[in-house]
C-alpha cells in the first residue's frame, strides 16, 4: 500500500490548500494519507472530506513543535481525535508564542538592513496564527536576497544567524500526552534532522517511549538512505513502529513528492497496521 503519513498545507507552511494536498496525493497513487500541519488541526475537516469524495483513506494528524535538549524536535500525532480538548488546548498554547517570535525574528533581520520583513513573511502565511520560518524564507527568496529557501535558512534563520530566535515550544511529555489522550499514536518525525549527541538522541527515544510514544519516521523525505538505515536499526532495537512520510510542503521546496518516498524496510512493523 502507498502510505504517506506526514505533509503540510496552507494551514501551516505548505503551499497547497488542504483539499489540493489530498488531490495531489491521490493523483500520485497514495492510498492512505495523513495531513500533519504544524501545531494546528484546521485543515483536517476539508482534507478528510476531499479524501472521502475520492475514496482515499485518510487519518487526522498534527506535527507538534517540542523543545528538547536545546533543540526543536517534531512529534507527529497520527489518528488523533481533532475534538479532544487536551490536544486542542495544548496546540493553542504552542501556537500562541509564534506571533511574538515572528516579531523578534523581524527585528533581528531588520537589524542587518532588511525592511518590512514581518509584513513580507505574513503575506506568505495564509494562517495568521502560524507564521513559520518558512514564510520568512519565502519572502527573502521573493525579494531576491537568496536563490532558494534552503540557502535562506543557512544564512539567516538557523541558530547563530540574525533571524533566529530561541523559543520554548511544548515539553516532550506534554506533546506525547496530548496525542495519546486524543487517541493517537505519537511518532518521532525525521529524527536524522536533529543536532543531538548520540547520548541525547538515546535520551530522546527513552523519554519519548516512557511517555507512551510508539513510532519513528524511518522513511522520511528529509532522510538520506543511510539515515533511513540508521533509524530502521533504532526501530528494530527499540521495538518501535515505523512510519513512511514525505514531509511534502510544495513542489519547488520538497525533495520528495507525496507518496514518492522509499518503501519501508520489509521487516519493520508499519505504524499504519494500527491506523487501518
Ligand atoms: P518553524 O516551525 O517556524 O521553526 O519552521 C520550521 C519549518 O521550517 C520546518 O517545518 C520546515 O518546513 C522549514 N525548515 C526548517 N529548516 C529548514 C531548512 N534548513 N531548509 C528549508 N526549510 C527548513
Ligand atoms: Mn514545515
Ligand atoms: Mn518537521
Ligand atoms: Mn513536517
Structure characterization notes:
The longest helix has 14 residues, at 225-238. The protein folds into two domains: 3-95 and 179-274, Metal-dependent hydrolases (TIM Barrel, Alpha-Beta Barrel); 99-157, DNA polymerase, domain 1. The protein has 276 residues and is α/β, with parallel strands linked by helices. Helix 6 packs across helix 7. The model has no long low-confidence stretch (mean pLDDT 98). Helix content is 40%, strand content 16%. Strands 1, 2, 3, 4, 5, 6, 7 and 8 form an eight-stranded mixed β-sheet that branches. Adenosine monophosphate binds at residues 13, 38, 65, 132-134, 149-150, 153, 249.
Strand-helix topology:
Blueprint: E1 3-4, H1 18-27, E2 32-35, H2 44-54, E3 57-68, E4 71-78, H3 85-96, H4 98-110, H5 117-124, H6 133-142, H7 149-157, E5 170-171, H8 172-181, E6 185-188, H9 198-210, E7 215-220, H10 225-238, E8 241-245
Helix pairs in contact: 1-2, 3-8, 5-6, 6-7
This protein binds adenosine monophosphate (AMP) and manganese (II) ion (MN) (3 copies).
Percent range for β-strand residues: 15-25%
Tally of separate helices: 10
* Total domain units: 2
CATH topology of the largest domain, which one?
TIM Barrel
CATH H-level homologous superfamily name of the largest domain: Metal-dependent hydrolases
Helix content: 25-40%
Which segments are poorly predicted (pLDDT under 50) over 5 or more consecutive residues? none
Task: Kindly provide the radius of gyration, computed on alpha-carbon positions and rounded to a whole number of angstroms.
Answer: 18 Å
Give the biggest beta sheet.
Answer: 8 strands, mixed
Which structural class matches the secondary elements?
A: alpha/beta
Amino acid at each position: 500500500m502507498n502510505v504517506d503519513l506526514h505533509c503540510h498545507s496552507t494551514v501551516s507552511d505548505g503551499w497547497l490548500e488542504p483539499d489540493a494536498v489530498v488531490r495531489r496525493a491521490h493523483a500520485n497513487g497514495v492510498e492512505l494519507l495523513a495531513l500533519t500541519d504544524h501545531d494546528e488541526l484546521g485543515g483536517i475537516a476539508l482534507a478528510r472530506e476531499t479524501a472521502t469524495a475520492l475514496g482515499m483513506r485518510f487519518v487526522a494528524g498534527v506535527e507538534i513543535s517540542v523543545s528538547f535538549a536545546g533543540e526543536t524536535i517534531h512529534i507527529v500525532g497520527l489518528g488523533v481525535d481533532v475534538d479532544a480538548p487536551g490536544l486542542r488546548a495544548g496546540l493553542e498554547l504552542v501556537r500562541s508564542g509564534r506571533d511574538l517570535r515572528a516579531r523578534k525574528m523581524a527585528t533581528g533581520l531588520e537589524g542587518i538592513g532588511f525592511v518590512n520583513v514581518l509584513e513580507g513573511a505574513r503575506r506568505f502565511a495564509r494562517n495568521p496564527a502560524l507564521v513559520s520560518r518558512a514564510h520568512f524564507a519565502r519572502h527573502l527568496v521573493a525579494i531576491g536576497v537568496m536563490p532558494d529557501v534552503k540557502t535562506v535558512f543557512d544564512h539567516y534563520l538557523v541558530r547563530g544567524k540574525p533571524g533566529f530566535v530561541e523559543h520554548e515550544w511544548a515539553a516532550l511529555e506534554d506533546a506525547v500526552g496530548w496525542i495519546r489522550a486524543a487517541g493517537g499514536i505519537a511518532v518521532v518525525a525525521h529524527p536524522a534532522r536533529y543536532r543531538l549527541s548520540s547520548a541525547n538522541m538515546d535520551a530522546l527515544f527513552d523519554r519519548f517511549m516512557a511517555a507512551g510514544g510508539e513510532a519513528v519516521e524511518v522513511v522520511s523525505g528529509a532522510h538520506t538512505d543511510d539515515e533511513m538505515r540508521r533509524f530502521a536499526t533504532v526501530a528494530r532495537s527499540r521495538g518501535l513502529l515505523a512510519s513512511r512520510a514525505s514531509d511534502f510542503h510544495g513542489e519547488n521546496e520538497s525533495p520528495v513528492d507525496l507518496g514518492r518516498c522509499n518503501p519501508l524496510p520489509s521487516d519493520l512493523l508499519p505504524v499504519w497496521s494500527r491506523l487501518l
